Amino acid sequence: MFRAFTDHPAAVGESYFEHMQVASWFGFTMLVGAVACLIHAILPFACETSGSRRIKLLHERMVTHRRRVPVAQADVSQGFLGYAEGI
Question: Phi and psi at residue 68, in whole multiples of 5°?
Answer without folding.
Answer: -100, 140
